[in-house]
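Supplementary Methods S3. Complex input for the NDP-bound model.
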Amino acid sequence: MSPSTPVTATSPVAIVTGGARGIGLAIGQWFLDRGHRIALLDIDQQTLERSVAAFDRPDAVLAVHADVRDPRQVAAGVAQVVAKFGRIDKLVNNAGIAVFKPVMQTSYAEFRDVLTTNLDGAFLCTQACVPEMIKAGGGAIVNIASISGLRASTLRVAYGTSKAALLHLTKQLAVELGDVGIRVNAICPGPVETEMAKLVHSVAIRSDYHDAIPLGRYGTPEEMANTVGFLCSSDASFINGQFLAVDGGFDAAG
Ligand code: NDP
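Predicted complex, serialized as structure tokens:
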């Protein structure tokens, strides 16, 4: 599907978790611009409603207020999408939180919350969506991991562990769901200018990234969305169980 493909009552449907803002919102925009109907699922109701209202496309954009950590809210959210659009073709597990602290300053509650949001959330959303994707004849899932899931670094004991586990979940799902026509891949973004980055990227972290990234800058949400869209598209029809670093060369530079 090319940019500006019109949306119709039979257009494919993409769910993006954490879709109220940042990378998730850009991914939603990418799908809408290419003829998908989109459901943006998020815990932050106010931002979600504002973002969905800005699209001004009630025929094609649905706000789903849900917490990906809660199986009942996830199931209810997916039921809402099916009631409105009748099908689910693509799922982007993007909702995530970050705590950047040394191990001895990371509380167990913080560790669990990062794991539950970033890992369990993807598991729960996948379980809820897969039956609908099978009914639709197959589909694609992309998990938004991180370069912090590819290599260890200070302050990321919770975040990096959650993203490494999400990468392994990606492989497990790819192996299990291939025979029902569902491809599962992950992207590993480098630093991206969003609210999350504002929250956890100190001046020192920013300076380290600028030095370590061959392209010498942060990525944009749109650059992440372009890659996710490609992985979900028929152009990527034989790509399954892969991790793609979208990081300006950070990982390659070692
Ligand atoms: P943002 O914090 O800007 O947006 C994330 C959205 O997810 C927020 O609206 C947030 O709501 C929502 N969310 C958080 N917890 C839940 C939950 N339990 N259920 C539903 N929604 C939830 O983050 P980014 O756009 O920067 O990040 C998106 C993804 O990309 C994350 O998985 C992140 O780890 C990953 N990533 C980001 C990088 C970056 O530099 N920005 C780098 C590498 C990976 P609320 O604000 O209320 O918590």
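The chain has one domain: 13-247. The first strand starts at residue 13 and ends at 17.
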